[in-house]
Amino acid sequence: MRISCPHCGERDHREFEYLGSAKLLERPDGGDRAAFHDYVFQRKNPTGENAELWQHVMGCSAWLYVVRNITTHEITAVKLARDVKAAAR
Amino acid sequence: MHYSALQILKNGLTGNKGWKPVWRDPEPKKSYDIVIIGGGGHGLATAYYLAKTHGIQNIAVLEKGYLGGGNVGRNTTIVRANYLLDGNLEFYSHSLKLWENLEQELNYNAMLSQRGCLLLAHNDGQFDGLARRGNANLATGDDAVLMSADDVRAFTPYLNFDDARFPIRGGLLQRTGGTARHDAVAWGYARGADMRGVDLIQNCEVTGFRIEGGKIKGVETSRGYIGAGKVGMSVAGRTSQVAQMAGLRLPIESHVLQAFVTEGVKPVIDTVISFGMGHFYISQSDKGGLVFGGDIDGYNSYSQRGNLPMVEHVAEAGMALMPMIGKSRMLRSWGGIMDMSMDGSPIIDKTPIEGLFLNGGWCYGGFKAVPAAGAAFAHLMATGEKATWATKFNLNRFETGHVIDDEGTGARPNQH
To answer: In this predicted model, what pLDDT tens digit does every residue of A5-45 receive, in sequence order?
Structure first.
């Protein structure tokens, strides 16, 4: 599996650290207990496309928003997580 | 038929014509008191204990493929009870006790081999951690022996003790741990369940649930609708998908775990060994193949095959621990899909839907849990109460803060 880092170009996935679902970008208010439980622990866990967070730890250190098919490992989009978060605001 | 030495002798002398198929191949009935989804180790064990211990007659196990064709047929067959935290401690302790009597219970040779299970430490911190773990096991009533480096050297002399990076500091041995014949466990429970009237229905995929007024009514399947008083999900690796059909979202991610086996070699490893640096564990099958594995690949996957970097990592760890295995050739490798829960521990609980029960989230510990999980899930489904050895595997523990994080890595399934 290879991931195209927007800064560094296409690299082997071993350069990247996987965090988990990109839903982690949407941190709810800490006072909303149910929403926070869902945020930390609950996952859709689809078999097809999933938006995920990876960090290019052995490259530019950027956090990336990666859309990957969980069954075929095909990657259809890579963006900077910063930009995705800014666009969502 | 009761299996015995006499039967083997009798059939051996009469051309082996007396052996009969071990279970029926029934057509599904219109409805059952209890339907178990998933004909793997856990599902079959659940059906067995529902019939045997709780005397329930009208049960079906629905399997989308063939019995024992999932993770119970794709694991590294290790049985042990050397966990650290309450919840896991008493559960695996109970499971090991059931393992020790399993063959007599089922009248089936599960080939349980209590050859010991050795965890290695490579520095003082790890050694202290093993001492703590051993004390927890002893306090639970299980077996644990803390070994110095010299003890380990006497026990497994072929390890690389003086590796410059990972010298062996000591180990923790559980003599009652070991391996079992994984397929035979599924077959033994299947036979026992069938003998007690359970319908084992293969090639029957559940495609939906019928839920009315928050209560389960039955399941839609590839072989038609089947009504059910209660339904239990026991579908390792696919738990999120099956639960989603009932509108549930779970604290589970699916990851792929690889395992490897070499060509058969003469007996060389007479125990189970876990390397403490990098995740690597190895044993030798009765056929002679070295069976070993490592970590999950590290990112969600449903592909049932692993990626090459983890193959390389596992091979490197193996070579660091026992350079002699570098001479053996790898015969095959495979990947299984794991329900990785958010704290690394399983869930055996009711769901918010009345009559729908969940047994899942076993990460890569499901095989050793088969007897106790089946018995606990059966107890829960039959009585509505948690079994005494499985009171803490609650679905809502993530909400209440009662997580059981044996590895201490937090809500990161790829780190467990």
So the answer is: 999 999 999 999 999 999 999 999 889 999 999 999 999 99
**CA distance to A88, B22, B32, B229, per residue, from B200 (Å):** 50, 11, 12, 17
CB atoms within 10 A of CB B119: 25
Comma-separated ranges of CATH 3.50.50.60 domains in chain B:
5-14+23-78+182-251+343-415
ipTM, interface predicted TM-score of the complex: 0.95
Q: Return the pLDDT at B41.
A: 97
Whether pLDDT at B1 is above 90: no
CA B121 to CA B127: how far, in whole Å? 5
- On chain B, the residues whose CB falls within 8 A of the CB of A1 are 307
Contact B398 A40 (CB under 8 A): yes
CATH of A2-88, one of 3.30.2270.10, 3.40.50.10940, 3.40.50.11030, 3.30.565.10: 3.30.2270.10
Q: Does residue B276 have a pLDDT over 90?
A: no
How far from chain centre, in Å, is Cα A44? Answer: 14
Q: Which residue in B253, B298, B309 is closest to A45 by CB distance? A: B253
Among A13, A20, A37, the residue with its CB nearest the CB of B399 is: A37
Q: How far is B346 from chain A (nearest CA, A)?
A: 14
Model pLDDT for residues A40-87, shown as the tens digit of each residue? 999 999 999 999 999 999 999 999 999 999 999 999 999 999 999 999
Which residues, 6 or more positions from B383, have their beta carbon under 8 angstroms from its beta carbon? Answer: B54
Mutate to test the interface with B, among A41, A57, A69 (most CBs of B within 10 A): A41
Interface residue A23 vs chain B (CB under 8 A): no
